[in-house]
What does this fold into?
Amino acid sequence: MHLKYESQLREPLVYGDKTYKQVTEDIVRPIEAKPTKLWYVGFYIAVALLMFGVYSVYREVTYGIGQWNLNKTVGWGWDITNFVWWVGIGHAGTLISAILLLFRQGWRTGVNRAAEAMTIFAVMCAGQFPIFHMGRVWMAFFVLPYPNSRGPLWVNFNSPLLWDVFAISTYFTVSLLFWYSGLIPDFATVRDRAFTKLRKRLYGVASFGWTGSTKHWQRHESLSLVLAGLSTPLVLSVHTIVSFDFATSVIPGWHTTIFPPYFVAGAIFSGFAMVQTLMIIVRKVFAMEDYVTIGHIEAMNKVIVLTGSIVGIAYLTELFMGWYSQNKYEGYTFWYSRAYLFSPYGWSYWGMMACNVLSPQIFWFRKMRRNIFVTFFMSIIVNIGMWFERFVIIVTSLYRDYLPSSWSVYYSPTIWEIGFYAGTFGLFFTCFFLFAKYFPVIAIAEIKYVLKTTGEGYKNQMANIEEQKLEEFVHEHAHH
Amino acid sequence: MAKKKFVVGCFDDEAVLFPAVKKVRTAGYKIHDVYTPFAVHGLDHAMGLRETSLHTAGFIYGITGTATALSSISWIFTKDWPLNIGGKPHFALPAWIPIMFELTVLFAAVGMVLTFCYLCQLAPFVKKHHFHARATDDLFVMVIECTDKTNTDDLQAFLQSNGALETKVEVAEDGWWLGRYDKDEMPFEEKQIVAA
It folds into this structure.
């Protein structure tokens, strides 16, 4: 029986003539097998980076912000650049799981679990930067509005920085709930086929006693759909609000109305690039090429070329407005500090242009979109480019302000600023390695749901349907 | 908790399951539940379950969030501690929209997930009876509640004639209790798994 008809023109989402049992076994295998040496090597490298980050943060907390090279003019440097970069990366997961769910994009099922995990870890990394940027981190709870003994002195609800506190913490919470509610049935699958007592016990706790009851599935579907509906505007709001941090100020180069859509497009762009980097490794290491297919990679490359081009248009619009506004500060920022190659930071602007605007155009070619090596290489290039974008926006706008006497000397990070950034890579990959080992990296139940309409073995039977007459088809399938 | 007697029939294809559900219901048996490895669309209708109202709860939580944000911010900024921010109005509604929106989403999402867990009685350390270990893997397990009059042999034969691969009679508790899963049987033997 076919629950849904799917055109033969679309390629299968699951290769190989799989049964439900095979799907379970293929996806659960990494959890049940012993980790390989490569996994340990990768995991220990990640933990080492994390330790370096912990020490860098320890220096900063103990000796103060002076451990970083920030100064009175460049008050935001690597820290806020890294914050925006990680938050941007954290956008692909919820986009894939929420917006693509509403748009009925079947291919999301292969990558949504890992992309959501990536989102959560990326937002965790992002959160570190503004928190430790505060300097006296033990007072970080001052950002929360609660009746206090200081007046009560409330936070400023009109400030984009406070909106950010709400946006990022809501985004993290909702993404975590969305992710975990999808994981519950899959944990139950792992639990019920476990052959060690420890695994049975731990996944028993994690699966919340899930049984697979029809009524529970019905509520689960409703929950997923509403969470997707809520997350769709949420994911757009988060980077919009991050862009307000800049756009509502009066700094030349920041004070632009195109920032919200421009930031959101950039976030999706970098998020998808990170998903590509991770999924290309995961599908290879765990032999999941049948589930994360070339078709999936191509679909994500299409999103990358689209959002990369939107970002490119935003860059050109900014340059045009820098001239068209005839505001000399805007003009100086855009045409000297940024676009002039031989200005102090001109290299970063052109690095950004090359990585974000020019190189993704290669994905107009189908052959390139479907090439694993090109995709992997490009995914890293895009993320370098998106890091440059945030660096360009922050540092080139700040280092020369309205008063030439306070122009700063060349800002470059200290080893502890770099260490903090490296540490968040450590945190991200430590979490991701643990996720890949102990969690089902592909949504098992969702793959089973699409298997009979988009699995290769079933798809081949669609040819028979295409030859059927409508009346015959209805007669055969309309019994319930 | 009281134990009840159930007849269990396992199917391996949703295409066989749907007509079977229909026939079992027409024959007058009470389906306790059907346990499936994934969400089978339309099965809830076939079983005659009513639509869930979870989304309505979500809406109520959402507007609660909006109202919480609007009322607290407006009280704080106009009554409790009116701050003069560049001479701008104390009641600065447009500037509050982001936080009102975020709290709407936060309340709706958290409230819905908690309600979902409550309705389905899901929580860490909760344990329920499992009629078949493969219900979360590849089998669709139909469980029929027996009355005093039910002839279990007839019912099993009836299920088999409708495509059930495996049938059995089980006496089980139908609620939940606090428990661990490691005492359960482990039908899946340890296999030589090739490291990925």
In short: Chain B touches chain A through 84 residues (CB under 8 Å). The beta strands of chain B are 3-11, 30-35, 126-128, 140-145, 166-173, 176-178.
